[in-house]
Structure formats: structure tokens, C-alpha cells
């Protein structure tokens, strides 16, 4: 089964207004890096991910509802996901992050699509 990533999804996400999820836009992305974040005792784990559309990268933080999938290894490097609910947050005047609230796993492990990925936050701050 071949799964295609959404072309230019990261660029589209980067140009979205903060806290505004476009209902008709449901991108398919690949996780190319993940890391568990340090959280206070008693809180559910949170995960930082770097997602790719095959050309560009965007950093994201996944909601607590997805934590179990990371802890069991169901979501790992190479996993392809479809974001059904997400928000784009402005961290600084030039850096954005994706808050992933809900996603569907389409493929648990796939060879990384694309190469020489570029971080969207460093590209469009110069091009805009």
C-alpha cells in the first residue's frame, strides 16, 4: 500500500492564522523525529514531534490523548499520520508550532519520504 504525503502541507500550515484549523484541510504527514517532553509529576506525558510533508519540516506537540500511542510504540519515527484536528501557534514573531489534538495513524513505520528537508520556520521568515 502506497501512502502519499500531502504536498506543500507544511507550507499551508505555516501560513494559517494562529489557533485556526481549516476544517477542509486534513494533511497527511510523516513523523521524522519524536521526543518525550519533561512534564510535572502527576501529569500525562507529552510528545514533541517533527513532521514532514516530504520537503519541509514543522515542529509539533501532541495532545495528551495521543500519548498512549507514543508510549506503546504505535507512533514512532517513520509513522504516517493524518491530522484531523490541529492548531497553529505562534511562538515568536517568526516561529510557529503545530498543536496536534487528534490524528489517525495510516502507517506505523515507513521509510522516510524525501530528503534534505528544510525547516519551514527558517525558510518563510526570509521569503515573506
Attribute tags:
about 130 residues; mainly beta; OB fold (Dihydrolipoamide Acetyltransferase, E2P); five-stranded mixed β-barrel; about 15% helix; globular
How would you summarize this macromolecular structure in one to three sentences?
The protein has 128 residues and is mainly beta. Helix content is 15%, strand content 38%.
Architecture blueprint of SSEs:
Elements: H1 9-14, E1 28-37, E2 46-52, E3 56-62, H2 67-71, E4 80-90, E5 96-107, E6 118-119, H3 120-127
Question: What do you see in this structure?
Answer:
The chain has helices at residues 9-14, 67-71, 120-127, and strands at residues 28-37, 46-52, 56-62, 80-90, 96-107, 118-119. The protein has a single domain (9-115), classed as OB fold (Dihydrolipoamide Acetyltransferase, E2P) (Beta Barrel). It is built from three helices and six strands.
Helix content: 10-25%
**Mean residue pLDDT:** 82
Q: Rg, please?
A: 14 Å
CATH class: Mainly Beta
Number of domain units: 1
What proportion of the residues form beta strands (DSSP E)? 35-45%
The rounded distance between the terminal residues' Cα atoms is 37 Å
Q: Mind summarizing the main beta sheet?
A: 5 strands, mixed, barrel
Number of helices: 3
Order of helices and strands: HEEEHEEEH
